[in-house]
Amino acid sequence: MTQWVENPTGGRDRGPLALARAWAEVLVRPRRFFRAGVAPGDQAPGLIFAAVVVLIEELTRLALITNVYPVVAGQPVASRALFLALAVVLVMPATLHLTAALQTLILMATAPNRGGVSETVQVLAYSTAPCVFAGPAIPGLRVACTAVGAVLLVVGTAEVHDLPYWKAVPAVAVPAAIVFGYGFRGFGAASTVLTDAGVSIPF
After folding, report:
1. Where are the bilayer-spanning segments (predicted)?
2. What is the pTM of this model?
3. Is 4 within the bounds of a domain?
């Protein structure tokens, strides 16, 4: 699941500069990025990309919001380090792979020319790019970040799995809800925005 291809055809370069370039490219030219930057079996750069996104987002939350994580055994610094490590090293990759598995099952019924699980993992990973800005407690900003992430997931799925957009949108609905609605707290932020605007939420 996490093999590192030595010389992937069309895959991503390695290193900090390559990560920064991938982040800019997926936001500015997403269709071109997903066509050229996703390669079979080349998951490692995508997983590292998503880990860095989550790390930056969580570090921002820690810096700007008090009591983000619970304190264990009266050790606030150690507790923050522990929960941050769990978010980046355990929760992120587990959620990404489980969501990719679910996405693959959905695509089996809708995309006869689909790519493999590896490509699905990469699409999900790179779609998180805008969520580097989702850390501050600004609901509107978080809604915007998660909405753009969901759009990138649609674009990536359409390009990589050879789907028309009208099929890609419903195909990614549940994975997008998991990753962006719950994982990056987009639903909670949207609820706050609507409540502040005086819109009654029936649930």
Report:
1. 47-69, 81-102
2. 0.89
3. no
For residue 5, tell me if it sits in a domain: no
Rg (CA), the chain: 17
What contacts 24+ positions apart, CB below 8 Å, involve 81-84? 84/55, 84/58, 84/59
pLDDT, tens digit (0-9, with 9 covering 90-100), for 143-193:
999 999 999 999 999 999 999 999 999 999 999 999 999 999 999 999 999
Number of structural domains, the chain?
1
Q: Are 37 and 22 in contact (CB under 8 A)?
A: yes
Q: Which of 15 and 142 is assigned the larger pLDDT?
A: 142
d(CA 175, CA 153): 9
**Which residues on neighbouring strands pair with residue 72, listed in sequence order?**
75
CA distances in angstroms from 89 to 20, 83, 92, 116, 191, listed in the order given: 20, 10, 6, 24, 29
Instruction: Determine the structural domain holding residue 79 and report its residue range.
Output: 16-196
In a domain, 11, yes or no: no
